[in-house]
Amino acid sequence: MQNSLESKITSYQLFCILTGAAVGVGLINLPNQVAEIARQSGWISVIIGGIYPLYLVCIASILQKRFPDKNILQLSRKFFGTFLGNFLNLIFMFNFVLYTTAVASGLTILLTTFIMYFMPPVKLLIFIVFLGAVSSCSGLKPMANINEVIFVCTVIVSLPAIASLAKGKLINVLPLFGVDIKSLLRASTESCFSYGGVEIIFLLYPLLSDRKNFKSYALKGALFLIVLYASTTFLTIYYCGIDLIKKSYWAMLLATKSIEVPIINNFRFVFMFMWSIINFKTISNNYFASVFVLQDLLKKFSIKKLSLVMYPLMTAIASTYINEEARRAFLKFAIPKYTLFNIAYLTTICCMALIKKDGLNEKE
User: Which 3 state secondary structure label does DSSP give 9?
Assistant: First the structure.
């Protein structure tokens, strides 16, 4: 993608895309995942897991300062050579393929369980992935505008957990440090999927119109995710307790029962509707990132064409784990390995960028 004026976005839009690529069904699953290992201290593990997005922001800030006009894909080819660089970029691309398909299948399961139980899951999945493909076709600028609008929905949807303060029990989160360090660290790895998607920052930092604000907004994005996830997990545990969480697939949804709105008979329906919009945005962001990387490898094809080409593949992959138990088992296997790859891949490029002397003066 050319760094033309039409493809430029602001740092605030990057903030919205960064948070938008990460916040998805993982937020609803997170309390269950960490509480299974760290029990009532699961929210502490979420904070520890927040080191991952903060670390990525630090690396991105270094790369943006050293090579402001080169994204991670170009730097990979520069330091590793064309063949190895493109191969590593392809592996990096499947980060976003994984996030796209996992969120799409997760949203399908949620909707067919609570709202659209009359619709065959496969048909709904085909429609959901199609919306992601159409959004990806529109390009970066329209996608950034959509993320700005839907960011407000993200804040609103997180409010139901706050309502649980009035009906929760303090004993549910006590003792605060009731598990050993090993359990806290092991549970922190369960939050990796929820933080997944922030890697999109390495594709977009050269496309900023106000680069001086990049580090500030990127850091705010990472901190927003940490605060959102940690507070939601804490409040879910506070309201439900460990025993009730173990009996539910999506414990956070139980908090919506504590909200009573006189005009609205079923607040959960409203919550699920808004949550679906947020997840469509998450799918679209990661779908676009997948196509962005692929277009860098296949420069003859446009983003629009590749979005359509990727549609059958995305749908096929997502359909392989349309069962919630199979989906969680697969993610538990795949996400830690991809997280380690990302850390090794990005850290190596960052180290090589620091050694390189001519980053700021080099022309495309």
Answer: strand
Task: Please check whether residue 5 lies inside any domain of the structure.
Answer: no
Residues in the chain predicted with pLDDT less than 50, given as ranges, are 1-5, 361-364
The secondary structure of 229-265 as a DSSP string is HHHHHHHHHHHH-HHHHHT-S-GGGGGGGG--BTTBS
Task: Tell me what pLDDT residue 103 has.
Answer: 94
Number of domains in the chain: 1
For residue 173, which amino acid is it? V
Give helix 267-297 / helix 121-137 axis angle, nearest 10°.
Answer: 60
In a domain, 108, yes or no: yes
Here the tokens at position 192 are 């990796």
Q: Are 74 and 86 in contact (CB under 8 A)?
A: no
Tell me the three state secondary structure of residue 23. coil
The CA distance from 7 to 88, in Å, is 25
Distance CA 331, CA 87 (A): 23
Q: Which two tokens stand for residue 219?
A: 């850091």
> How many angstroms separate the CA atoms of 34 and 56, rounded?
22
What pLDDT is stored for residue 164 in this prediction? Answer: 62
- In this prediction the pTM is 0.92
**Which structural domain range is residue 223 located in?**
10-355
**What is the CA angle 218-190-294, rounded to 5?**
55
Judge whether 200 lies within some domain: yes
pLDDT, position 155: 82
Buried b (16+ CB within 10 A) or exposed e, 7-21: bbbebbbbbbbbbbb
Q: Is residue 361 part of a domain?
A: no
